[in-house]
Amino acid sequence: MDQAEYLRLKRQQESPFAALYEAARQRDADLTADGRRPVLGGLLSKEPVAGVDTIEYEGIKSMLLGLLSPAANAIDAPLAAYQGNIPMEDMSGEAMNLAGMVMGSGLASSGRGLLDYDPNVVNANKADLDPFNYQNVKMDGYLSDTDVGIRDAGENLERTPMSWEDMENKVVLPFYGDRTSGGKYIDSINDVKFDDPVYTEGGVDFLRGKANQQDNAVWASNSNITKRLSDTADAAALKFPDTDIVGLTGSMSPNANDFATMTGDAAGKYIQATGVPRATAAKFDEVMKSADPEFVGVNSPNLSAYLAGTTSPLRKIFMRLADTAPMRSGGFPDMALARYAVTDATQREMPPGMFGLGAARIDTTTPRMFNEPKGNRPVAKVPHSTYNSQIAGEYMGSLPPVPQGLIFRDVYDGMEGQLTKNGQPLTSAHKTHAIKTKVPAQPITPEILGGILDYLSRPQG
């Protein structure tokens, strides 16, 4: 094997896109074997039948693989050059990539060339850059370097510190929520200044915000979730008379923020300032418009208004599609920045499934409140922009967060030794799903309290 051939093989093996390149090649090979050919970047495929093309939908995954090669080359070529893996005779063929002129797609089309890559970032792995998984794919820089311009709106009550000893013999329900902040204004992300601030109204601070002060609301969610919580609280009040029924907030994963209007608003404003290369934007818009024909376009000046006003499922589709390797390598900014910007500062480095940062006594005598109530149901004076219903109660305070498994012992113990359909032990994600589905009313017994206090007595971190 000569030196040039050796370097080409070495480049292929060391490329961060090696596995995805192979997946794209295999997809095309499979279509060829079936007598079909990919079109629209793999979103569709065609088969000539008696002079007429028959069209089949291949799905978003295939489309993303079809996007991969031209988009990824814009990053792969500068990295390969930096690593010394491009033979001299291939340099002319890679000139377009190395010069940052890749047909309007890739980071190179945004004006980034070889000298723009920080070796400290290039050589860092994904976990170094983003240790708390704010993004599905590798970030451009260290999450910890993100500078968020944030102001307090001055409308929240102060957090009241509590001790877990105060919870003994009370009955607790899980208030799973995203980790967004509440009562804040986000003015900027790094060097991008927003014309209008992003107002946050979520997560644990909802218990102390305007809705609590005007409506005694302690939790907001879609009506099917608040009904499940309310029904469980009512049943617990009957089973445990003269006992406080308490909702405890639990932090979900960082990308759970994708449902919230404020996350979409922040992402939209940031993308509007940075822009997305034309070719990548065209492919992205094509997929989004298949989900929502009213999508305004990723480079539209109305993007942030669309993302703030659309449905939560469509907002999630947008964020998750942008957070894919082909879109990122095609020039999309890091979605982690928007998620991080709207995150409550006290939860930025908190693992998922930690409970207790917010505690509220649920009022089982007061019916749920609705943004647009039917019949004689109460109306929410302070409606939530993401969710349509609220539960009433009284804010109690803030506890030191502990893992969910120490609190909801009845659910955890009931799954002890169970296996998945594939014969594998249940993971924490399976147990989280069970807690969300069952919505347990868990008494804080002396035994459970002892386990919590033992955990808190050990060094953390």
What features would you describe in this structure?
The chain is of the alpha+beta class. The chain has two domains: 3-129, no CATH class; 150-257 and 344-457, no CATH class. It is 38% helix and 18% strand. It has helices spanning 3-14, 18-33, 60-83, 95-98, 119-122, 126-129, 210-215, 223-239, 261-274, 278-291, 303-309, 312-322, 325-329, 336-341, 404-407, 409-414, 428-438, 446-457, and strands at residues 37-39, 44-49, 52-57, 148-152, 171-177, 182-189, 192-201, 217-221, 245-251, 354-362, 369-370, 389-397, 402-403, 442-443. Strands 5, 8, 9, 10, 11, 12, 13 and 14 form an eight-stranded mixed sheet that branches. The relative contact order is 0.13. Residues 65-69 and 99-117 have low confidence and may be disordered.
Characterize the main sheet: 8 strands, mixed
Whole-number mean pLDDT: 83
Number of strands: 14
Q: Summarize the amount of helix as a percent range.
A: 25-40%
Strand content: 15-25%
What is the count of distinct domains? Answer: 2
- Spans of at least 5 consecutive residues with low confidence: 65-69, 99-117
The tally of helices reads: 18
Secondary-structure-based class equals: alpha+beta
Broad shape: globular
- Radius of gyration (Å): 25 Å
Distance between the termini: 50 Å
Keywords:
38% helix, eight-stranded mixed beta sheet, alpha+beta, globular, 461 residues
